[in-house]
Amino acid sequence: MPGLEDLYREIILDHYRAPRNRGELPVPPAHKVEGFNPLCGDEVVLYLVVDGDTVTDLKISGQGCSISQASTSMMSAAVKGKPVAEARRLIRAFKALMSIHESKLEGEADGDALAADLEGVRLGDLEALQGVVKFPVRIKCATLAWNTLQQGLDEVESS
Amino acid sequence: MTPIDVARIKADFPILKQQVHGKRLVYLDSAATSQKPLAVLDAMDRYYRETNANVHRGVYTIAEQATQQFEGARAKVAHFVNAHESAEIVYVRNATEAINLVAYSWARANLREGDPIVLTHMEHHANVVPWQILAAERGIEIRWIPITPDFRLDLTNLAELLDGAKLLAVSAMSNVLGTINEIRPLADAAHAAGAHVLVDACQAVPHLAVDVQAWDADFVAFSAHKMCGPTGIGALWARRELLDAMPPFMGGGEMINQVTLDGFVPNEVPWKFEAGTPAIAEAVGFGAAVDYLTELGMDAVRAHEVQLTGYTLDRLEQRFGDNLTIYGPRDLAVRGGAISFLFDGIHAHDISQVVDEEAVCVRAGHHCAKPLMKVLGVPATTRASFYVYNDEADADALVDALERAEKFFAF
């Protein structure tokens, strides 16, 4: 049985207690995007500045559980200053990390495809969130920030 | 009144004998759904083993028996809430469907563009969204009764809010705050203004003696699964003349009297609203649940929960002081056994996760009352809620588990 220490790793609690890049940015030039987790009321607000091909600045706001807020903080640290293409790759890799366990359980063939997608992407600290997959109800808390980022990048690109 | 003997009651609920994470299961989420006593499980099992047949159809023996049990359960439910007659009880899936039935049938036949209806800030989504759907479709106006700082309905402007209103739809007991709303004066005020009254009694019927006639309501919705019964069945009580006048909600078998190529004549109430093969075993279980609660006595159930809620509020306050905020009235006379709270700086979800390690089941989230959460200014709360099988040892287990959670997240 998975224990609390699988879920609440020290690095996660650290990001929850001291979230990185917290604040707001003027809109415009920043693009504001909000994400909600209707299950538990988690709320993520992102202020994205995309200059050319790069996420030049990023601030996070909102409120929610330790997993959603730590994941948001870790996401912000991972994508700030990175090329959009790399941010998108991280989104894919992180979502794969969160779904790989489930798809393997369900015997889906694309579990291996997801594993291949993960190859070569360095998730670093983000891997601490891997324990979340053992608590299926909390996966949405962890992926909220990433889905919101994806939505924000899509909106910026289509505008 | 014979007081509740929790030790004896616990023995009636097989699930409570289980261990989770190697610990005694402490179930404190009865506001979401109650556990089921053996009497209910056995009644449903017996139905499937001995008398399963479709109702109102066959003339063979077991079909007659199935019909008798199905309708017998309806009579029990009717008696339990003091309906005038069994025909006033329409079986539905749950309280949500009951409210939707009223919104789709009565409201669409009676409300026109611009007609106001009155809801409250403490309603469950089940008593909000059906009306918002109607508002989007029909252009009705939704007005809101706010809440006071002590978590009661703020009736200061009730007369203005009800002026011209066609419906007041209000919860008898908040699933978040525990607040008990006194229905009779609200119904009197609504009727004086020419409005009908719908009561979401989902949290009230399981925990208090409910008398729909004393309430003088027009529609009352409740679910079996929160009152020791199975999921998948609930009841809409409505005054007979309203049900008679209302158009059918869904079409199909059972709800008709006559069908030709040119059209149909609807069946009598309540069957007019019960299209298709109903949840027969669930109705049997519903009846058994009513028997179980009747045997305990609803006054005893209420007295037990008042005592246990008071004990728990005292213990929470003593142990956690200002670090814990309780969202709900402190006056036990106007609250039920749902206790919502938040720790300073710790999210409800995290609390819930840590106390689960101790096999303590509490709910975290917005409790399907997002407008209320917005009014309270919180994203979510943790909620512990009691029923007949809970005792002070359960409340103590909650307090101990919360202490562990508080330490775990201490900064």
List keywords for this structure.
heterodimer; A: 159 residues; alpha+beta; Sufe protein. Chain: A; three-stranded antiparallel beta sheet; 17% strand; B: 411 residues; alpha/beta; Aspartate Aminotransferase, domain 2; seven-stranded mixed beta sheet; four-stranded antiparallel beta sheet; globular
Radius of gyration computed on alpha carbons of chain B: 22 Å
**Largest sheet of chain A, described in full?**
3 strands, antiparallel
For this entry, what is the oligomeric state of its chains? heterodimer
Low-confidence stretches of chain A: none
Shape of chain B: globular
Number of helices of chain A: 6
List the uncertain runs of chain B. Answer: none
Number of helices of chain B: 14
- CATH class membership of the largest domain in chain B: Alpha Beta
* CATH topology name of the largest domain in chain B: Aspartate Aminotransferase, domain 2
What does this structure look like?
The complex is a heterodimer of chains A (159) and B (411). With 159 residues, chain A is of the alpha+beta class. Chain A has a single domain (4-158), classed as Sufe protein. Chain: A. Chain A contains six helices and three strands. In chain A, strands 1-2-3 form a three-stranded antiparallel beta sheet. In chain A, strand 1 and strand 2 (42-51) form a beta hairpin. Chain A is globular and about 45 Å long. The termini of chain A are far apart. Chain B is of the alpha/beta class. Chain B has two domains: 6-32 and 298-405, Alpha-Beta Complex (Aspartate Aminotransferase, domain 1); 41-295, Aspartate Aminotransferase, domain 2 (3-Layer(aba) Sandwich), CATH 3.40.640. Chain B contains 14 helices and 17 strands. Chain B has helices at 6-11, 38-51, 61-80, 95-110, 129-138, 158-162, 183-192, 212-215, 240-245, 280-296, 298-320, 348-356, 370-376, 392-408; strands at residues 19-20, 23-24, 26-27, 89-92, 116-120, 141-145, 167-171, 196-200, 219-223, 234-238, 256-260, 263-266, 324-327, 338-343, 360-361, 363-365, 381-385. Chain B has a seven-stranded mixed beta sheet, sandwiched between helices. A four-stranded antiparallel beta sheet of chain B has the order 13-14-17-16, covered by helices on one side. Chain B has a two-stranded antiparallel sheet with strand order 1-2. In chain B, a hairpin with a 2-residue loop joins strand 11 and strand 12 (263-266). The longest helix of chain B has 23 residues, at 298-320. At the A-B interface, helix 3 of A face helix 12 of B.
